[in-house]
Write a structure and sequence with these properties.
Length: 343
Amino acid sequence: MHYFHTDIPELRGYDSGIVLNNLARLQDRQSRLSEAVLAQLWELAGAILRDSGGDPEVADSILLSLQDGGEGPGTAGDAGSRLLPGDRELADRIGGHAGLYGRLELYRFLREQQGADLSSSGPRLLPEARPSARGRISYMKSVLADKAYLRFSGLMPDCRFSEAHSFVDACEDVFNGLCQFCLLPLEVVGEGRLTAFSRLIVTYDLTIAAACDLTTPTPEGSRVTRFGLLCRETGGSCLLPFFPGTEVRYVELLHTTPASPSLTDLLTAAEFCGLYPVRADTLPVDGLTASADGRDSGESERPAVPPVSLVLETSADADIATFARFLELEASEDVLMGAYGVI
């Protein structure tokens, strides 16, 4: 574990070299301490499983308590009280990031000891639909939308289309149970996010089940438009794919709170788990605090900062299960807008 390079031959014998040598020794001690902490986190994972007796609610209660009061000022106890006020604040900030990494590693250890593997759990269950709506896709017809429909129709048997007069009508068809899916354009790749459609996804409690990219020629070359196949949100923070034979390549979130977790912590957790941002867009606050049926989302006040729409791409070795656990326990107020692949 190295914060920066300390072995600089040209500085040996100088004051800088002496201080760097002291820092090297401290970093070596920190590395051994970190290894001991990892061992204790492994032991803690086993203890939580034993103490919870297999009850997931008890295990969640224990895990949630680990977030309480562990990273504020003065949390270092007697050791922290011996620090100067300015040093204590900086130490708490450093400890806050260490605590986040520790909890993420604990979530991973818990899954390993439980023998749970998200990738072997099969596809995510689609929301229930009445027989007349099952397999029906509502969309506003256009040349590109027709091509997207043909692409998505291969994901399900007995696929049918239902023409909508507007994008709002398509979303309402799904929200009211008349159709199981709808089509919306999500973004023009390389140009920008279509934020109006992100607002529709949140307003009508939809989630992106799959996406496809369609290329059209332009005088400058070509233009790629990404279409999304959307269904009703089934709740939770599950990051399983919706269709057999597909895998999650993108995770899309609406980060709604500037407090806990902060956007920085969310991105740190994503990177820790092998997911990396490819898009970040702020969305207007108006209209994002009420659901399509007019019920208030529970926010008594508007957030101090605009919500941020994040698109995260999974790496080849992404730990999606650990990131899903983090979202469930530490970012439950954020909106999961989709976990999907591009077909």
